[in-house]
Specification:
alpha/beta; 6-stranded mixed β-sheet; 8 helices; 19 strands
């Protein structure tokens, strides 16, 4: 949905991007390749994008249906992340099938039936050694993960080295926003602190994620690196070299950044039901927590803060941010540049 870096020769304008998580990185990149001069401001500190596993999955397993506009979001995500990899010289997109452990015979039958007409759903396979899945595993090929920390770092370094764009570590309140043709607020849950954005209706959705490392104590055969993301309500995602991400928790009621030993045990116990060797074969080497910015209808929150304003928001990416951010970054740029209408279901003022 975007145009190539070299496709525009005259400057489109000056843009200030506030926040450099996933939202700020994707909107900044999209603006840069449309030849905007981009200044990104970030105060540092906690960032949900750096905690997130960066996983993408085009299926909803609750009803065995594709997620919202799944193929469109997949196509836009792959195009943008691929373009960022080429520009920044990093590898961050990792395509991995997802193995959904089917919980009972009825779900297994539904999977087989729906897979006949849904190209996103693959075959049902038998569980590999060491995995308990008596009703089989449903395969989703179009899944994987994006190394968000690596991507965010690479984009920041690009901004710092660029003559046409820049990165400033500072609080947004200390930045003079005059002189910019567009200001895009991408602060995630941090935007809630700004009284002028009180109408956004963004809520913190706490999530905790563990990093596991395989022990070298005779468990190599039964815990070899999966070439897939194992999902049984919680998920185990291979990072390579014997390391895995395990997650995630979902908590509306706790908006702190405190880690919970209870959540840790819940995550481990859930995976242990399908991977009995989990606790004996792995060590928990990291436990992290983040506050996802989520709107109550689970759709992104984008557009003008107020009518006839040069100030916009790009927020509310929630639990599927990697999958949906590229499409809506491009849509917001189209809106800023040409006035193209945004769908009502994503408008920032839809809750007012």
């Amino acid at each position: 949905m975007g145009e190539g870096m070299a496709s525009r020769r005259s400057a489109a304008g000056r843009m200030l991007v506030i926040g450099q998580g996933l939202a700020g990185t994707t909107i900044g990149f999209e603006a840069s390749r449309r030849n905007w001069h981009v200044t990104t401001v970030d105060r540092g500190g906690p960032c949900a994008s750096r905690v997130a596993a960066g996983m993408f999955n085009p299926m909803s397993f609750k009803r065995l249906i594709p997620t919202w506009d799944a193929q469109t979001h997949l196509d836009c995500m792959r195009e943008m992340i691929g373009a960022m990899e080429a520009l920044l010289g990093v590898k961050v997109l990792h395509n991995l099938p997802m193995w959904k452990v089917l919980p009972n015979a009825e779900v297994a039958r539904d999977w087989i039936i729906k897979a006949q007409t849904n190209p996103l759903m693959g075959e049902v396979i038998e569980a590999p050694d060491g995995v308990i899945a008596p009703y089989g595993i449903g395969v989703v090929e179009s899944a994987g993960w994006v190394d968000l920390s690596k991507l965010l770092d690479a984009w920041r370094h690009h901004l710092e080295a660029s003559e046409e764009s820049q990165f400033i570590q500072a609080d947004a309140a200390d930045i003079d926003c005059t002189g910019y043709d567009a200001v895009v607020d991408c602060r995630g849950i941090g935007a809630v602190e700004d009284p002028s954005l009180a109408g956004l209706k963004i809520s913190p959705y706490k999530g905790e994620v563990l990093t596991l490392e395989r022990r070298d104590e005779g468990h190599q055969a039964e815990t070899a690196d999966f070439e897939a993301i194992l999902n049984c309500g919680k998920w185990l995602m291979p990072l390579g070299n014997g390391r895995f991400k395990l997650g995630a928790s979902y908590d509306w009621d706790d908006d702190t950044l405190e880690i919970s030993a209870e959540v840790r045990d819940v995550l481990l116990h859930k995976l242990e039901t399908v991977l009995p060797s989990l606790r004996s074969a792995f060590d928990v080497v990291e436990h992290r927590v983040g506050l996802r910015p989520v709107a109550r209808d689970r759709r992104p929150v984008i557009g003008n803060v107020e009518k006839s304003s040069k100030r916009f928001v790009f927020n509310g990416l929630g639990t599927r941010g990697v999958l949906i951010a590229p499409r809506w970054a491009a849509a917001l740029l189209n809106h800023i540049e040409t006035g193209t209408s945004l769908p009502n279901l994503v408008l920032a003022n839809r809750f007012v």
